[in-house]
Task: structure prediction
Amino acid sequence: MRLSDLHTGQSGHIIKVLGHGGFRRRIMEMGFVRGRRVEVILNAPLKDPIKYGLMGYEVSLRRSEAAMIEVEVEGGPRSREVNDRNAEAGYNDCADGECETAPRTAEGLVGRERQIEIALVGNPNSGKSSLYNALSGSHEHVGNYSGVTVEGKRGAFSFRGYEFIVYDLPGTYALSPYSPEELYVRRHLTERIPDVIVNVAAASNLERNLYLTTELIDIAQEMVMALNMYDELEQSGATLDVEALETLTGVPIVPVVARDGRGLDELLQTVIDIYEHRCTRSRHVHINYGVAIEDALGKLRETMAVDFGHFPKHFSRRYLMLKFLEGDDYVERMLAEVCPHYGEWTPLRDELVARVEKELGEDIATAVTGEKYGFVAGALRETLTPGRADQISTTAAIDAIVTHKLWGFPVFFLLMWLMFEATFKLGQYPMGWIEGGVEWIGGLVGGIVPAGALHDLLVDGIIGGVGSVIVFLPNILILFLCISFMEDSGYMARAAFIMDKVMHRIGLHGKSFIPLVMGFGCNVPGIMAARAIESRSSRIITVLISPFISCSARLPIYIMLTAAFFPSHASLVLISIYVTGIVMAALTALLLRRTMFKRDDTPFVMELPPYRLPTLRTVARHMWGKGRQYLRKMGGVILVASIAVWLLSYYPRPSVGMTAAQQSEQSWLGRVGRFVEPAMRPIGIPWKGTVALVAGVGAKEVTVSTLGVLYSAETKADTKTKTDAEPAADGASIESGIDVDVDVDVEAKAEAGAGAAIGAGTTMSDWTPLGALSFMIFALLYFPCLAALAAIRKEAGGMRWVALSVVYNTLVAWVVAFAIHAIGGLFV
Ligand code: GDP
Ligand code: MG
Result:
């Protein structure tokens, strides 16, 4: 029977995991091993994925993945038997010193004896980042959601006369090189060789956390365990005999609470003791892998001993031999490089593997994982007295609502709606103040600097440009406050859980949903949020389709044009535009999945952490961190872009007597617009529209202000050159950009956006309604704004994605706008 055949509430024991490669490995490391009991907790509202409970934590699998796990319904005789055998697995002390690993090289130590380098290694959500922050005083992102830390972070601090360097590494379940995070961690341990590894283990879920500990025991580098979330263990009423666990594992253990800093001094003192070789609690043990495997290791040892001298020193020989036996290609490559006799070993290994697998009736990887979990189960049986399952039941109660088959989606959409309301409605107040402030500064500077190019550059280009970025800050902060709250409480994982099936249709993961939703506010934080997606291909696809999600900066364009050309069908047109964006995003995702990213590199398997009440401090830190990032990185880009657009629209200077429209036309920007115009004629966009689109490349809100300038000038018969010949990207972009409220009354909007007046179509005489429609579609889909491109470059990793994005999106925009224009032309 397969796990996917079990019904909600049923449970079974695992017989084996089918399939191969990364998925199988990952799932076994997460505790899906022979004999283990799994319970079906609930189905997502769309019946897929499914939430399972095992070893006291919750994990979601897709139905197709659960179908790869063979189980036996509760109480079968076979499962009992294996289960018991597992728990008997024991350990031996390491007697022959074969597991000694060399410390960091001698040269590396000179002059830095007072410096200790530590690396935080632990499961996702074990609190590594919290510990890192507590130790180093940093503000790294903490979240109750796996995959939040994607790259290593380095921090430094001093303690009792030592300088500490600490690395916060991505979360891993094991050290096998099947996922990018595991590879990253393993590489860190081989290349940097920390003086002391700090294994961060969550006390609230010891069984799975200790699995990674067994891997670390195997490599035999110096280590201490930070038994984090000790508060949760205490609250649950469980008791743990820490000393006994120390004896059984040979690893010094220090209970800590990273969130409020409890136990940190003791942890660091233990690190110092280990570093100074004064720690009596650390001892190396061998996990016993059972007779068959131990025999095979013995045979390998005899043969491989000739080259022991050549073995890499950072991992124990026993570990390297075990991995060689398992056929770990990373270790194979490592040994092949340095061992002269390597070539002779492979046949022997293959023979041993065949023999062992025949004897055990399962493959080596499964057997090793099973024995490791057996070791953990045995150790916990002697040391842990479970308490009440309070946290689990609170979590279950919340989940009963938020992942309910009827209520799940309404609750989700309600929360999304609240998030947007808060972001844009609440954000309007501080926005108003900032806007006022910017205007005041503009006025002040404008009063001091004499009229002329410098004056205009300062006031319109720089203050206007920077101002147009700063006004969005409250939105960004509120948006991230909400998101941080959702992440840290654990709700984000549920949102990904219920959305997975829908997202799977377009080849993505449930986790891609949140970044896309955020994109409706602003694509930039949306793209940045894609960072939490573990799978590289899904992450890149999510990043690339994000710009199709219509952000709030594009809304003023629609509002202005629908008011002018479709006054009686405004909402219908608006909705169709948004839907077009979503459809193009979905189609593009499918296309990318079919062509550039054929295979998804990580399985869906996702842990659903218990709900935790976020602390004010972490939420605030996160919010501020994002705000700063926004200001620094994106602000820089927008600033530069605004100045560039300003320059292009300001020069060459018009001759006296020109109207604003003429001025715009003869500016560099106007010339570019003129140049591009033939390409835009087939889609019904007149040259002024083209100029506006070209100006909007920097930031889409500039499109509206440009149109405003061009047409307001045309309307006024008595144009006086000087004042009206405002450059295209004048301060109006501030107003147009921030008016993102959907139900603002249309006239006010048209006024704010277009400056003087777009008198309901009358003055835009060179437009047709159809042209306006294709203009809006084009504006929606084309060239992502520069801030978005900067974010794409950072998150997808490389200029080629930026280039792809620019070319592809503009092409798509043209094709879709053309189609609409051509098809629409048949009816009008
Ligand atoms: P990481 O994925 O290992 O980096 O874990 P994080 O540092 O992001 O923390 C995961 C979650 O556990 C967050 O919600 C933290 O607030 C929470 N957390 C971290 N340390 C503790 C602790 O000592 N006690 C409790 N109760 N929660 C903690
Ligand atoms: Mg982290």
